[in-house]
Amino acid sequence: MSSENGRPEREPAQADAAPAGDPAGGEQLALIRETVREAKKPRAKPRTWRGAELAADRPVARVLVDKGLIHLDQFFDYAVPEAMDAEARPGARVRVRFGARVAKGRREGGELHNGFIVERRAESDYRGPLAPIAQVLSPEPVLGPELLALCRAVADRYAGTLADVVQLAVPPRRARPEAEPLSEPLPPPAPPEPGSWSRYPTGPAYLDAVRRGERPRAVWTALPGPHWPQELARAAVAALAAGRGALIVVPDGRTAARVDAALTALLGDGRHTLLTADAGPEVRYRRWLAVSRGSVRAVVGTRAAMFAPVRDLGLVAIWDDGDASHSEQHAPQPHAREVLLLRAAHEKAAFLLGGHGCTVEAAQLVETGWALPLAADRAQVRAAAPMIRTVGDGDQARDEAARAARLPTLAWQAVREGLKSGPVLVQVPRRGYVPRLACERCREPARCRHCAGPLEARGGDGELHCGWCGRETRDWHCGECGGFRLRAQIVGARRTAEELGRAFPAVPVRTSGRDHILDTVPDGPALIVSTPGAEPVAEAGYAAALLLDGWALLTRPDLRAGEEALRRWLGAAALVRGQEAGGTVVVVAEPTLRPVQALVRWDPAGHAVRELADRAELGFPPVSRMAAVAGPPEAVADLIEVAELPGDAEVLGPVELPVTEAGRPRRTGDPPPGERWERALLRVRPGNGAALAAALKTAQAARLARREGAPVRIRIDPPDIG
Question: I need a surface site. Which of 149, 305, 624, 694 has the fewest CB within 10 A?
Fold first, then answer.
């Protein structure tokens, strides 16, 4: 008799008595008796393996195999040889043969896969012979019970596999850090002073509640200025003072470095660690191990740090949750905010969501009462925020082309005045020189002759290059009207810097963008041209800021276009000196639009509340739970038909997705080049989100197990549904 190696765990049946008067009661009782008879049969005990004795105590290891197929999302049992008994502990990394068959004591076939031991047991639910663990890679218990439970919860919420989530949560092994001795944690520090938290009416009370080990939950609208890293650090120190751990997740390494410096100033060295990709694999694993072993109780990091195994977690905090960097791009694509919400609930920790802006998800946390608002009063906001100016009717009367001009007179005046006292920030939505070109006569986009990609002007030499294949194009002419002249659809940061350099020849002009990001700039007259999110910090704050090309942010085909534009504007304006110090911000956008008005009033929470009301009226997330299903048309239709969706599920679409052209750089979620894909949106009420995820996961697993049709991509709570 032969059997597959590593059979799945089987859940015991629940024997409930049949209700009185049930016509099917006889069938249920027969099923119960059969279940009882099966339960009384002796379970198989592991046998020796080719002369090798198995462990005397709990010789069965339940293993999570690192094979992220959704229809294999379960644990598998393996035998533990006696030689591996001491090292094969729960949480350890192992190598096992998967897909092998065991016949007459011999192993046949099967490939070696990595895995994690999740449990040691005395017996297996599987009655056949078990294959042994092939190798213990490391006895270090890197997948503890709390981290395993968190990964399971995230996988269930996002219709993903446990193995995929564990891959995100546990970094790859490095042998050298594991061999280093364990260091003892330092004693708790003294409670922090409120410091700049005193600017918020409930700020000191929040810190005090964290210090007492309580679980306050707050959505914090941070005041503009340079104090927010110190305020995050003080919240973490309050959790450490209570003898508990703290975790702070921020969008990028530059932001993490600012919070890291603030924590070092408050705590000194050795009490916290920084988890970012910039550290390198070995350094990062060494720091992660220090957290896992309990040597360090506070963590600051980017997206991957949301799974950091902090002992006795007392505070989870996330900064700027609207930043796209918080959304993981690898399956099942969890969002850091949602993972921290799960951790706060499961690990009974305080929660702090902060930022200069406010997302609709944050507004919903306040609206439902799950969290309380933490904000300054209006007088404090007016004192800290710069003056916000728009191109209004008065400016149009003096300058008829003010609203149509990219740099109206008001903007030039703000630059001239600002340069008298310090640096001036210029935010441009696009990088490069002239990122997009079109025919001057008919406005048809200019395309490459080779791959039909968009043509760009990368410098002032007039040469045209394709944005997809990189080929140079000469003697271009429009295929629609035959025109030979081009115009700029969008002007990039480099072209803007060139124009400003000619207008202010005595002033240095510096750029900050994806290719080269500046961290700080000195406090002297200079023009800093930056793309959103790459703005450097001025030592004493910027004297003025220009927010150009607002239409490029506001007209994006995205449900979050207004929210995202306001978030980026607030992030830049928060770097400008306060109104009392003469700070001025000019936004070049239609002044009557809701995001522009929210910026003028510095009221991100009010804007988010109104956006939430609009979402509720339309039934869009986060008021509803939604899933996006994308793939070949037949596969999408089959999955929706097979899935046992909740009763209130509403299917929107499907709609055809744009075909990815050959040579074009693919983004996450794009279909393979040349393939025709469709996307359907499934919407349910918030209480049925878990049922929707479970139904889609079960249907996907069943289709893959039967090998019926092409797989489809499932994304729960897609960030872009515009």
Answer: 149
